[in-house]
Each structure stands twice: as C-alpha cells, then as structure tokens.
Amino acid sequence: MGYDIERFVGYVNEGLLCSICRDVLEDPLQAPCEHAFCTACIHGWLVHHSNCPEDRQMIDVSLLRPLYRYMKNDLNRLQLHCKNREYGCEMVCSLESIDRHERECEYSQIPCSNAGCTVQIERCNLDGHLAVCEYRSRECPSGCGYIILSAEDMQHNCVAELRTELELLRSEMICRVEEAKHEMESRLDSQRRHMVQKESILQNEIEELKSQMSRMMSDVRSLMAAERQHRQELEQAELEKREL
Length: 244
Description:
Elements: E1 28-30, E2 36-38, H1 39-48, E3 65-66, H2 69-77, E4 79-81, E5 92-94, H3 95-104, E6 109-111, E7 120-122, H4 126-132, E8 138-139, E9 147-148, H5 158-243
Antiparallel strand pairs: 1-2, 1-3, 4-5, 6-7, 8-9
GO biological process, one term: regulation of canonical NF-kappaB signal transduction
Protein name: RNF41 ligase
Keywords: Coiled coil, Ligase, Metal-binding, Zinc, Zinc-finger
C-alpha cells in the first residue's frame, strides 16, 4: 500500500499515484508500459493476474524495473505531514526523509518497556510513564532486597522470599558439593588405575631382572666350573712335565 494522499501538502501529479491502490507510490516499480505501482501492490496483483491493471498488457515480475530517475526525484521532493499528526506532531518534510523522521518522532506511539504493561505511549512521554508505571521494577520497601517487577508482587512475603532464596542457595551448594565429590572420585579412580598399571609394569620389570640375574648366575657357575677344569688340566700338565 502507498502513502495516503491526504497527508500530502499541495498538488500530487497523477503519474506519482499507484495504479492499484491510488495512493502515492511507496517503494515504486514500473512496468514496460510505464505504469507505476507500489511494490507490495503489484506483487499482490501478479499472484492472481498476469497483466497490467491499467491497460491489460501482459507483464511479469521479471519485467518490473525501478521508477525513472526524474519521476523518483519528483516523488522524493513531495512534502507530507508526519503520520503522528493526530498525536500532535506538526512536522512537514519531504517523502525522501519522512521515514527517518518518523523513526525518531517524539510523538510516535511506542510500547512501555516494562514486562506486563500493555500501554502504548508517545516517545516524549515515555519517561514520565515509566516513573509511575505499576509494572515498573523496584526494590522491596521492607528491605529484603527482593526486586518487585509488577503490582502483584507488592503482596509478596519477605520471609517466604528469603526462605525460598535460602533453599535455592542450599540446593545450589549441595549440587556443587556433589559435583566436586564426583570429580574427586573420578580423579582418584583415574590415579588408582594409573598406579595399578604402573605397579604391573614394575612387577614385569622385576621379573625380567630376576630372570636376567638367574641367567647371569648360571653363566658365572659355568665359568667357575670351566676355570676349575682348566686349573686341573694345568696342574696335570705340570706333573707330567716334572716326570719328564
């Protein structure tokens, strides 16, 4: 849909009106037959039709093009009232800058930022409303530290709130202790497995050393026996030598 023609100051050229909604063009597109439309209007039209609503010539979405530059310039220069005129805004500005103004307009209706509040209020009056809004957040006047978020919370019980908070803290502490306990048990199990594995490796090494020592003792005994045999042979040879 286009801009309501009643918002504009002075005469608006017929060529700047949408051929479908008959309001001033908004985000315009132009067909090959040079008829212009609001983007939303022509897209909606072509869902059910395949021709121009003015002269019935065949058109397709792919044939639509931006408005001629001179027409776009004429459109942007049009002067119109802010949409918040009924709320007190007296601003008149060009179509080219109207969106920027209305985004920042002090008379724009905006929702209250407090959860639960359904009030729509002018931007310029928002601060005043927030100061008295029954849904505004504030600290409990009894001193328990509870943040009151709505009018219903005014009836809250400080003792009950503190008890609830204490229970939450206790539950959180128990959870943390359990988590620390599980973590410590996991670490101990890991260290225990590591120690068992290390012990097994050391036991195997000891057994290997024992086996090596046994072989060495056997070799030493063999060498000593060979040495005795050799000594006896030398003594026998010495005796034979003397006899000779």
